[in-house]
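dude i think i finally got it to work??
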Amino acid sequence: MEHEALSEVLRSPSDPQLKLALSRLALEVNSRAQAGGPSTTEFMATVAKTLRQVPQQAHPDLQINCLMDAAQYFYVAGKSFDAMEPATDAVTLASIADNKALLRRALSLLGVMYADTGNISRAIECYSQALELAQALRDNPAECNVWQNLGVALLYSAQYRDAITTFEHVIRLAGSDAGLQGLRAGALSNIALCCLHLEDFERGLRAAEACLSESKEPHTAAEMVARVLRENNYSRLLLEVNSVDKAGERCQIARRYATQSKSVRAEIAASLSEGLYEVHAGRVDVGISRLTATLEKARMMRSMLRDALAALVKAFEIIGQPQR
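look at this
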């Protein structure tokens, strides 16, 4: 593996050898982050540890990209606490290198990890710094990305109306730029989730349908996870308006991508919508059992816990057992 080759080079490094070893490692990390797999978690942890042995001033751009890809992998896999160290190291290296573009990306990524682990105030601090950098760089896609992340932090803290305002700002900034279609679709999906919690089902369905019409076929693990979350929002909104059969079809789509992604985050999201669908379809015991098991998994992932609790509460309301 390339991290082993890097360890060998570090014993008596010359600059050309070190650059080549880091370049090869960056390619392997990026490839494995997109593909996932059972051995990837251990590999990414080893990479993050190995990079700490590399001099900070040695090709920091290559080191930062490795660290951010590792952190992104951990996030997609549902291991955001494991992502904190590589994300923090990326911010440190980008600050030392005085690379504003990479620092903006690293701060945004670290903010995502803080938000996902429940530290909303630290997440907002990271996003504030990242937003200043994006605006100073006049980087519209980067600015859209930061606003999107800020909206998600507000969503996690149940400030749904403020979150919707933020996501609408993303849509305005993105406009009709084809390169920002993914951010537009993500903002629409998040609006749908906010509307689900606010019980504004009509508006939520419009946002969910617009989101899916703009969503491309997913190929990487991250894209599959995003698609599962979008399908989850849509199917739960459909259930709220008693469109049970159609919700079941969307659950099948979500399950297929969740299985392919090998992500705990996607597994939880798909199981929540499946459990609610089964309760609505009259298979109460199966649905409650699935939702209860999913809640236990979600306790290990703070960002998913509120949704899991809300889904189980909804299920008990449907079957007339509010005391549970």
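The chain has a mean pLDDT of 91.
im so relieved honestly
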